[in-house]
Specification:
Structural class of chain A: alpha/beta
Number of strands of chain B: 0
Radius of gyration of chain A: 20 Å
Shape of chain B: globular
CATH superfamily of one domain in chain A: P-loop containing nucleotide triphosphate hydrolases
Bound molecules: adenosine-5'-triphosphate, magnesium ion
Largest sheet of chain A: 7 strands, mixed
Strand content of chain A: 15-25%
Helix content of chain B: over 70%
Order of helices and strands of chain A: EEEHEEEHHHEHEHEEHE
Order of helices and strands of chain B: HHHHHHHHHHH
Largest interface: A-B, 23 and 20 residues
CATH superfamily of one domain in chain B: MetI-like
Number of helices of chain A: 7
Distance between the termini of chain A: 38 Å
CATH architecture of one domain in chain B: Orthogonal Bundle
Oligomer: heterodimer
C-alpha cells in the first residue's frame, strides 16, 4: 500500500538521437511524492525536462523507465482525473469561452443535462472573472483572459491532480499578478492537488507548499524539495514582508545560480528521494530512503 | 475605407463603359457606299468588311433581354431557354460534386489521420490528379453507357482530387495541442474526429470544395459540348453551329455569372466555418 497520494518512482526519459550518438537522457532517478491537496511548484533551468515530466504525468508522453502511482494505482495514458493547463492556453478557437469550458465539462460528466453543464461551466468562468465574456471567441479575448479560460476549463472538471506548465509564462507582469491572486483564491476554496511548472521564483513562493528544484539537463534530477513555510492565506501584496521571505527566496535563487549546475548528474540515485529542505528552520531531513541527513539552509 | 470602395466602383463602371464603347465602335458598320447595306443585314452578320459577323454590344443586350425574359421556355431540343440549360449544367455539377464530397471527405479524413496510408496512396493521387477530366470521358461512356451519367462522372472525378488533398492536409495539420486536449478529456476517437478534428480542418476542407466546384464548372461546359443534348455547354456549341455569335457571347457571360455565384456560395459557407487563432 502506498502512503502518499502520488508517488513517482525512478522516472527517466531518454530520447533517441540521430546517427550513432547514444540516446539522450533528459532526466533520470526522478523520485518524489505529493500529498492530497498539496500545491507543488517545479523550478529548473530551461531544457532540464520539466515539461517532459509534466507530459508524462498527464499521460501524453511515456516514461522510458519508472512508475507513476496515483491513489494507489499505477497510471498510464491520459485520463480525466488529471487536468492540464498547457503552456499556450490551447483553447479550441472555434468555440466560445463558455463553449471551451463546457466542452470539457460535458466530456467529464456525459450524463449531465445541458443546463447543468452550462451552470457548472459558468460558475468556473465567474470564478476567474470572465462573467460577461462567455460568448467571446478566444481570438476576441486578451492573452490573460484566454489563460483564465484555460484555468476555468481545467478546474471545472475537478481533476484529482491539476497539471500546469508555466501557465503565466506568456503574460505581462501585471496580468500575471492578477491571475496569480485569482488562482490562489480558487485554490484556497478547492484545495486541488496541483503540480505546476514555473520559471518565476516569487510565483513559486507565493503559491507553493513545496518547491521541487531540478538540476540542469541532461541527466537532470530533482535535487531538493523545499518547504515554503509561510502561513496561508498568502497575499501577493504583503508576502514580501514575511520575515523569512528572503531566506527562502535566496535559497531558491542560490540553487538556480550555482547548485543546479554543480549538482548536475551528481545527486540522487535509484529510489532516492530528493532531500527535504526547510530554509526557515535551517534544517532538512531526507525522506524515507537512507539515513536522515541534516542539511543547512541558505549557506 | 468607404472612399476606396466608391472610387473603385466608379472606376469599374468606367472600364465597362470604355470597353463597351470601343467594342461598339469596332463593330459599327463602315462608312461609305456600303452605308446602303441594311442594318438588318449587318445585324445578321451578312455585311462584308472587317468587323463582319462580330455583333455589337447593343445586339447582345437585346438578345439578353429577350432570353432573360423567358429563361425557362422549352420548345424542342434546339430551342431551350438559357435558364433551363444552365439549370441542367448546375444540377450535373452539383450531382458530381456531391458524390465527390461523399467519397473524398471521409477518405481524405482517414488519409490525414494515418501517415502510413498517406504515403501509400500518395503516388496514385499524384498520378491521377493531373489527368484532364475529359480524358476519362471515353472510358466513362464505354462503361456507363449513358451520356448524362458520364458527364456527372467526369465532374465527380475532377472534383474529387482537390477535396481529397485538402481534407487530408487539413486533418494532418490539426494542432497537437488540440488533440492533446481531447486526449486528456478521454474523448473517444469518433468524438475527437467529429468535435475536434472536423471543426479544426473545416476551413481547409472548404477551400478544397471551393477549388473543386470551380474546376467542375470549367469542365462541365467542355463535357456537355462532347455529350450534347442539354446544358450550357451544348447550348454554346449549338449556337456556334447556327453561327449565332451574339448568343455565344451571351452564353459566355452567363457561364461567368453562374460560376461566380457558385464560388460565392461556397465562400459564404466558408465564412461560417472559419475561425481565428
Ligand atoms: N520529442 C523529443 N525528441 C528529442 N528530444 C526532446 C524531445 N522533447 C524534448 N526533448 C529534449 O528534452 C529536453 C527537455 O525538454 P523540456 O521541454 O521538457 O524542457 P523544459 O524543462 O520544459 O524547458 P523549458 O523551461 O524551456 O520549457 C530538451 O533538451 C529537449 O531538447
Ligand atoms: Mg517547458
Amino acid at each position: 500500500m502506498s502512503l502518499h497520494f502520488i508517488e513517482v518512482e525512478n522516472l527517466a526519459r531518454t530520447f533517441p538521437q540521430p546517427g550513432r550518438q547514444p540516446p539522450l537522457t533528459v532526466f533520470e532517478h526522478v523520485n518524489f511524492t505529493i500529498e492530497k491537496g498539496e500545491f507543488i511548484c517545479v523550478i529548473g533551468h530551461s531544457g532540464c525536462g520539466k515539461s517532459t515530466i509534466l507530459n508524462i504525468l498527464a499521460g501524453l508522453d511515456a516514461a522510458s523507465d519508472g512508475a507513476f502511482v496515483m491513489d494507489g494505482k499505477e497510471v498510464s495514458g491520459p485520463s480525466r482525473d488529471r487536468g492540464v493547463i498547457f503552456q499556450n492556453h490551447s483553447l479550441l478557437p472555434w468555440l466560445s469561452a463558455l463553449g471551451n469550458v463546457s466542452f470539457a465539462v460535458r466530456a467529464r460528466w456525459p450524463e449531465w443535462s445541458r443546463p447543468q453543464v452550462r451552470e457548472h461551466s459558468m460558475n468556473y468562468l465567474k470564478m476567474v472573472g470572465l462573467a460577461g465574456a462567455e460568448n467571446k471567441k478566444p481570438s476576441e479575448l486578451s492573452g490573460g483572459m484566454r489563460q483564465r479560460v484555460g484555468i476555468a476549463r481545467a478546474f471545472a472538471i475537478e481533476p484529482k491532480l491539476l497539471l500546469m506548465d508555466e501557465p503565466f509564462g506568456a503574460l505581462d507582469a501585471l496580468t500575471r499578478g492578477v491571475i496569480q491572486d485569482e488562482l490562489l483564491e480558487i485554490w484556497d476554496r478547492t484545495h486541488q492537488t496541483v503540480f505546476m511548472i514555473t520559471h518565476d521564483v516569487d510565483e513559486a513562493i507565493l503559491l507553493a507548499d513545496r518547491v521541487m528544484l531540478m538540476t540542469n539537463g541532461p541527466d537532470a534530477r530533482i535535487a531538493e524539495s523545499v518547504v515554503i513555510d509561510i502561513p496561508r492565506p498568502r497575499e501577493r501584496s504583503d508576502i514580501h514582508q514575511h520575515p523569512e521571505y528572503y531566506t527562502i527566496r535566496n535559497h531558491l535563487v542560490d540553487f538556480l545560480i550555482t547548485r543546479s549546475k554543480s549538482l548536475q548528474g551528481r545527486v540522487g540515485g535509484p529510489g532516492q528521494q530528493p532531500r527535504t529542505v526547510n530554509p526557515v528552520k535551517g534544517v532538512g531531513v531526507s525522506e524515507r530512503v537512507g539515513a536522515p541527513r541534516v542539511v543547512g539552509g541558505t549557506a | 475605407m468607404a472612399g476606396v470602395k466608391i472610387r473603385a466602383a466608379i472606376l469599374s463602371v468606367l472600364f465597362l463603359v470604355v470597353f463597351l464603347g470601343a467594342w461598339q465602335l469596332a463593330t459599327a458598320p463602315p462608312a461609305g457606299p456600303e452605308r446602303e447595306l441594311t442594318e438588318y443585314e449587318i445585324m445578321m452578320g451578312l455585311g462584308a468588311g472587317s468587323g463582319a459577323g462580330m455583333p455589337a454590344p447593343t445586339e447582345i443586350f437585346s438578345l439578353a433581354w429577350e432570353e432573360l425574359s423567358r429563361p425557362f421556355h422549352d420548345s424542342g431540343p434546339n430551342d431551350k431557354g438559357i435558364g433551363l440549360q444552365l439549370l441542367y449544367s448546375v444540377v450535373r455539377v452539383l450531382a458530381g460534386f456531391a458524390l465527390a464530397v461523399v467519397v473524398a471527405v471521409p477518405i481524405g479524413f482517414v488519409i490525414g489521420m494515418s501517415p502510413v496510408l498517406n504515403n501509400a496512396l500518395n503516388p496514385y493521387i499524384q498520378i491521377l490528379k493531373p489527368i484532364s477530366p475529359l480524358a476519362w470521358m471515353p472510358l466513362a461512356l464505354f462503361t456507363i453507357k449513358d451520356a448524362a451519367a458520364s458527364a456527372i462522372f467526369v465532374i465527380f472525378i475532377c472534383s474529387i482530387w482537390p477535396m481529397l488533398v485538402n481534407t487530408a492536409f487539413g486533418v494532418a495539420s490539426v494542432k497537437r495541442d488540440w488533440l492533446n486536449v481531447a486526449r486528456t478529456l478521454e474523448l473517444s476517437s469518433l468524438r475527437t474526429a467529429l468535435f475536434v478534428i472536423l471543426p479544426a480542418a473545416a476551413p481547409t476542407i472548404l477551400t478544397g470544395m471551393r477549388i473543386s466546384i470551380g474546376i467542375s464548372w470549367l469542365v462541365i461546359v467542355a463535357a456537355e459540348m462532347l455529350v450534347g443534348g442539354t446544358g450550357i455547354g451544348y447550348y454554346v456549341w449549338n449556337e456556334w453551329n447556327n453561327l449565332d455569335i451574339a448568343a455565344v457571347i451571351f452564353a459566355i457571360i452567363m457561364i461567368g455569372v453562374v460560376g461566380m455565384l457558385l464560388d460565392a456560395a461556397l465562400a459564404q459557407a466558408g465564412r461560417f466555418l472559419r475561425y481565428q487563432e
